[in-house]
């Protein structure tokens, strides 16, 4: 135990607890920043995917909290020895699973500042800067993405930061549900129908469950390789016609730019026109790929966004803003407010009652909310748009290089077009393989992940077990992509020999 830790313990034992002593914060803050910096410096030495067994931590930690204070150094030692082995290192340059969850120095500093202020910004009056900065920064990013003016705060719409894309989808689904029920009556809930492709994120299904949409009224339209797994407008049109003729009420459509399985892009313009013709709320989920659309050469993937009612993307996925920071824009903010607003006496205040401010509590599910816009503001200011564009382009270039490596080895095949920084591929099964390579590729996934050297994830497309290689970790470079390819080749050699 060092001298500073001893003196801190002495103060704690003799005096009343002072949990926010500024000098204490300075001392411990420096130690924590050093610890985190050292973690990033050595991150490549850790197994990317945690190799612990379920319940491992209960055997390592006491079964009761301490009665007396312990030193920060003792806590950090336990983090190093007991917590880190149970961490899957999402920021590792050898992390290629799911989609990225970006961290950065700017995002981290914004998170620190948010934690330091520790405001609970549900209404404008609770911290005006928190509300107003969020409005401004969401307008900034809307302009970078070249979203229609209707999504800007200067009109009837605007942007808001949610925790995740799942929350964003739930919020707009509730708004859409209530908007239509106000017209046709609350007793018509059983008639409401939701549309999406079978590639849409499962968050929509959960949102339907929460919103009370009847399970049988959730229309999942099949997408296949003929359209690169994009939703087919004709199928949507047919489904709507059938539902209308049966007395149902189509009210919500979710399209995706960058699906979870294969980064497929739904045809927004055609889908939007169908939605508009049938007075359907049209939500576009670009949780992953929305970040790429800050680059002019990828902006066309959201062409047709002018037809959308709402649009969402996760800055915490691929835009260097630490989790959580999910961005949602709507054309009509009153739809959110009418669905989600409450006005108890204890929350009433002059600014809100005069209707001169935004109260984001009425745009989301929970009441409380963090000062998340600080992170995004610092990312945009400390890096600038041009550097962020270069960052995205580099990951896409690395994904292209990985795809070229796959095509150079006849034992592997690419199974879906590479649009952004995700490559979908598989090990080609031997002729006559009973399950068309399902078990073979499952075993390859397990082998590379248990090696600890890299971490990838999988999906199933057209009945085939597919491996997903998503480039997007902040520290990933060409050398990591090549090393990952060697791990895959070596494990494939072993499996095919067996």
Distance between the termini: 53 Å
Rg measurement, Å: 25 Å
CATH homologous superfamily of the largest domain, by name? Answer: Type I PLP-dependent aspartate aminotransferase-like (Major domain)
Give the tally of structural domains. Answer: 2
Let me know the number of strands.
11
Shape: globular
The CATH topology name of the largest domain reads Aspartate Aminotransferase, domain 2
Number of helices: 15
Q: Major sheet, described briefly?
A: 7 strands, mixed
| Secondary-structure element order, N to C | HHHHHEHEHEHEHEEHEHHHEEHEEH
Question: Any idea of the CATH class of the largest domain?
Answer: Alpha Beta
Query: Spans of 5+ residues with little confidence (pLDDT < 50)?
Result: none
SSE-based structural type = alpha/beta
Pfam families: Pyridoxal_deC (PF00282)
Protein name: Tyrosine decarboxylase
Organism: Dioscorea zingiberensis
Family: Belongs to the group II decarboxylase family.
Explain the overall architecture.
This protein is of the alpha/beta class. Helix content is 42%, strand content 12%. It has 15 helices and eleven strands. Strands 1-7-6-5-4-2-3 form a seven-stranded mixed sheet, with helices on both faces. The protein has a four-stranded antiparallel sheet with strand order 8-9-11-10. This is Tyrosine decarboxylase. GO terms for molecular function: carboxy-lyase activity; pyridoxal phosphate binding. Its cofactor is pyridoxal 5'-phosphate.
